[in-house]
């Protein structure tokens, strides 16, 4: 399974990438903001996207909305320090598969990925 990891933090991208790789998933690309995420999504056609919300430029919610409009079957998991109900509700309305609040455990990440891909 191919995964795109989107986060403005290189450290968080590496943590997510390492956890996913350890579980046998292939991280095909990384992106640091929403615009980069859309471009990488279109070029790699991943099976799943992990998407941060708060990033410079285009945020993760806007990027998720754009990706889901062009590909309604896209599987996106939001990963954010923002655990606000309003933000989570909007993400769910957009069609994201799950919402992980930072900091998260490796088990929480892997369970969300497995659930979204099943």
What does this structure look like?
This protein has helices spanning 10-22, 34-44, 60-70, 85-94, 106-117, and strands at 2-6, 26-31, 48-51, 76-80, 98-101. The protein is of the alpha/beta class. A 5-stranded parallel sheet has the order 2-1-3-4-5, sandwiched between helices. Helix 2 (34-44) runs parallel beside helix 3. The longest helix has 13 residues, at 10-22. It is globular. The protein starts with a strand and ends with a helix. The mean pLDDT is 94.
Number of strands: 5
Low-confidence stretches: none
Q: Could you report the average pLDDT, rounded to the nearest whole number?
A: 94
**Helicity level:** 40-55%
What separation lies between the terminal Cα atoms?
11 Å
The SSE order reads EHEHEHEHEH
Number of helices: 5
User: Structural class, from helix and strand content?
Assistant: alpha/beta
User: What overall form do the CA principal axes indicate?
Assistant: globular
Tell me the strand order in the biggest sheet: 2-1-3-4-5
Strand content: 15-25%
Largest sheet: 5 strands, parallel
Radius of gyration: 12 Å
Overview features:
five-stranded parallel beta sheet; about 120 residues; 5 strands; alpha/beta; single chain
Q: Would you summarize the structure shown here?
A:
By secondary structure, the chain is an alpha/beta fold.
């Amino acid at each position: 399974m191919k995964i795109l990891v989107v986060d403005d933090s290189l450290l968080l991208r590496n943590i997510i990438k390492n956890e996913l790789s350890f579980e046998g998933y292939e991280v095909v690309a990384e992106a640091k903001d929403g615009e980069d995420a859309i471009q990488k999504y279109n070029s790699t056609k991943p099976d799943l996207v992990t998407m941060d919300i708060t990033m410079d430029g285009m945020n993760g919610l806007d990027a998720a909305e754009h990706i889901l409009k062009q590909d309604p079957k896209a599987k996106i998991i939001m990963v954010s320090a923002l655990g606000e109900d309003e933000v989570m509700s909007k993400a769910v309305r957009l069609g994201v598969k799950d919402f992980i609040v930072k900091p998260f455990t490796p088990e929480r990440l892997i369970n969300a990925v497995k659930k979204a891909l099943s």
